[in-house]
Amino acid sequence: MKTSTPTTLVAVCLLIIAGLLVTGCTTAVEVPEQTTLTVFTAASLTGAFTDIGKAYEAQNENIKVDFVFDGSQTLRTQVEQGANTDIFVSASTKHMQALQDAGFMDNDTVTPFLGNSLALIVPADNPAGIAGLADLAKPGTKIVIGTKDVPFGDYTRQMLEKMAADPAYGQAYKDAVMANVVSEETAVSSVVPKLALGEADAAIVYKSDVSKDDLTKVTRIDIPSEYNVMATYPLGILAESPGKTEAESFIAFVRGPDGSAILTEYGFDPILA
Q1: Domain count of the chain?
Q2: Which tens digit of pLDDT belongs to each residue from 62-81?
């Protein structure tokens, strides 16, 4: 029987060690670190941006998008009080401008990207028999609108001012409608449930707030263009955002074909880049 020489054994050992080293090098693949983007987003965009976030993450596995949905006024206040976020998506140019003026935004990134308009909604069974804006002034009609500080409440008041200036309605109409307001909400997301539960006869919301699922609970009545108010939504990156590159990528996705298609599906009017 032939035995191995010491030289042969050493060579074999060296080959085994080299193989282990190569194997170790090939299996220790460095995994890119995941980045989390925090996006403060107007409540009226909850459905659309939730879907956009899922679509974006599917194409960018190393980026996680965390949304905070609330009224634009509330989100603005949180930013002013030091909340950490990367992107602010507002339903009003007023609140975005306030943050820009105070130095919170990277102003070069701020841009309008979306349009929206108001609509009148009533419960599906419409117990008050409301057929249009004129019926909102009927005594005893229970109406829900937004507070004056949130965009959809501000726009509602602008609409009523337009109607008050029209002799067909006048100041008395506006006063009667405001007297019928039983609740003022800080976010549109709480309005549809009130109608569905029978707590109100009508509400003024954004056109986009009536989703496909909501159509079994409420009916949307279009508001004539001469009284309607077009809302413009801006978005931008915070000056102190640590993930500006990723934030730019997300905004590009929102404004690109995939994001615009989702926004259109939800009833918004994308403003093309």
Answers
A1: 2
A2: 999 999 999 899 999 999 99
What would the two tokens of residue 156 be? 């509602």
Specify whether 202 is located in the same domain as 127.
Answer: yes
Do 260 and 204 share a structural domain?
Answer: no
Residue 128: predicted pLDDT: 96
CA–CA–CA angle 205, 203, 254 (5° rounding): 15
Residue 72 lies in a domain: yes
The owner of tokens 């596995």 is: 61
Q: Which residue has the tokens 């959809």?
A: 152
pTM for this predicted structure: 0.71
Q: Say whether both 222 and 240 belong to one domain.
A: no
Q: What is the CATH number of the domain that holds 61?
A: 3.40.190.10
How many C-beta neighbours within 10 Å does residue 29 have?
Answer: 6
144-190 pLDDT, tens digit per residue, is 999 998 888 999 999 999 999 999 999 999 999 999 999 999 887 78
- With H, G, I as helix, E, B as strand and everything else as coil, classify residue 69: strand
At position 7, the amino acid (one-letter code) is T
Helix (H/G/I), strand (E/B), else coil: 67: strand
Q: Provide the CB-side half-sphere exposure for 5 (13 A, CA).
A: 3
Shared-domain flag, residues 50 and 180: no
CB atoms within 10 A of CB 248: 15
